[in-house]
């Protein structure tokens, strides 16, 4: 229950099933091309899912932060 609450509070609950699948593959260190191949979607679709993940997690573009790493850290946090 505590994990579910943490995910809800930190935006992960708002992700669609496909966005969670993309984020899980990102956490495995997969490239966008590898994620696309694994999910049988286009690279453009993966880019759109990642943009949606960043938006839902409140990760704006930044010169000093890597949004991909920050998203994965949120996903992996217990």
How would you describe the overall organization of this protein?
The protein is mainly α. It has one domain: Winged helix-like DNA-binding domain superfamily/Winged helix DNA-binding domain (Arc Repressor Mutant, subunit A, Orthogonal Bundle). It has five helices and no strands.
Task: Offer a concise description of the structure.
Helices cover 65% and strands 0% of the residues.
Beta-strand residue fraction: under 5%
- Uncertain runs with pLDDT below 50, 5 residues or more? 1-8
Which descriptor suits the 3D outline? Answer: globular
Q: By helix and strand content, what is the structural category?
A: mainly alpha
Tally the structural domains. 1
How would a crystallographer describe the biggest sheet? Answer: none
Say which CATH homologous superfamily is assigned. Winged helix-like DNA-binding domain superfamily/Winged helix DNA-binding domain
| Number of H/I helices | 5
DSSP strand tally: 0
SSE layout:
Elements: H1 2-9, H2 17-27, H3 32-39, H4 43-56, H5 67-76
Keywords, separated by commas or semicolons:
mainly alpha, 78 residues, disordered N terminus
